Amino acid sequence: MMTPVILLTGMFSGLFTPTEAAAVASTYALLLGLVVYRTLRPADVIHILVDTVETVGVVTALVMGAGALGWCMSISQVPQTLAPIMVASIHSPAAFLLMCDAILLLIGCFLETLAGVLILVPILLPVAVAFGVSPVQFGILMIFNLVLGAIHPPIGVVLFIASRIAEISYESLARAVLPWLIPLLTVLLIVTLFPPVTMFMPTFFMGK
Predict the structure, then answer these.
(1) Is the pTM of this model over 0.70?
(2) 84 plus 164 within the same structural domain
(3) Which residues 6+ apart lie within 8 Å of 178 measured at CB?
């Protein structure tokens, strides 16, 4: 129960980064298992490390492949070529955001989230601002779309990690996740078409 408290407090207070938070959470769980609950033995740590290396190895290979694909797309100027063509025929901010949703969801299924942000933000953000879309709103939509892609086949980096932890096949988990995409896509549509849903708090606290 204290794990979320430690993670969120540490990250929001600046005590450690999200990457360091993973190490802190792992250390906390290890201490609980070895010292407090005593459900782990020192010999079990070796098996845990082996399982961790196997999981990280699979995910690293996926991230490497997604990074290579992103590099190829960037070098080939694919986003820079396609984005202006699609944007030129759009005259409505709502239509532009819906188009961005479609592009980002598609790219999120194949690219790692960070690669998608690095490639697409410099291209789409200036156009969004020109349409009068708040950068905060556009940032929320971009992350939402790319994260949805991360839990969706065919790549679905998060699905691979979850399937390893749950010890079930990737295919079974992918089928189980599909129905949950309906409410997630519904929320995405609401956030896209009704900016006050996401902009209320920034506007209230920042006045813009």
Answers:
(1) no
(2) yes
(3) none
Q: Tens digit of pLDDT per residue, the chain (208 long)?
A: 788 888 888 888 888 888 898 889 889 988 998 888 888 888 888 888 888 888 788 778 777 776 777 778 778 776 667 667 766 777 788 888 998 898 888 887 777 777 778 778 877 887 888 788 889 899 999 989 988 888 877 777 788 778 877 888 888 888 888 888 899 999 999 999 998 888 888 777 776 5
Alpha-carbon span 31 to 171, nearest angstrom: 34
Q: How many helices (H) and strands (E) does the chain have?
A: 11, 0
User: 27 and 111 share a domain?
Assistant: no
Among 188, 97, 99, 104, CA closest to 149: 104
Same domain as 178, residue 130: yes
112 and 157 inside one domain: yes
* Domain extent for 34: 1-40
- Cβ atoms of 138 and 128 closer than 8 Å: yes
The Cα 197–Cα 3 span in angstroms is: 29
Same domain assignment for residues 23 and 53: no
The amino acid at residue 63 is: V
Same domain, residue pair 75 and 150: yes
How many domains does one find in the chain?
A: 2
Rg (CA), the chain: 20
Give the pair of three-digit tokens for residue 206.
């920042």
Q: Are the CB atoms for 39 and 33 separated by under 8 Å? A: yes
Residue 64, both tokens: 């490497």
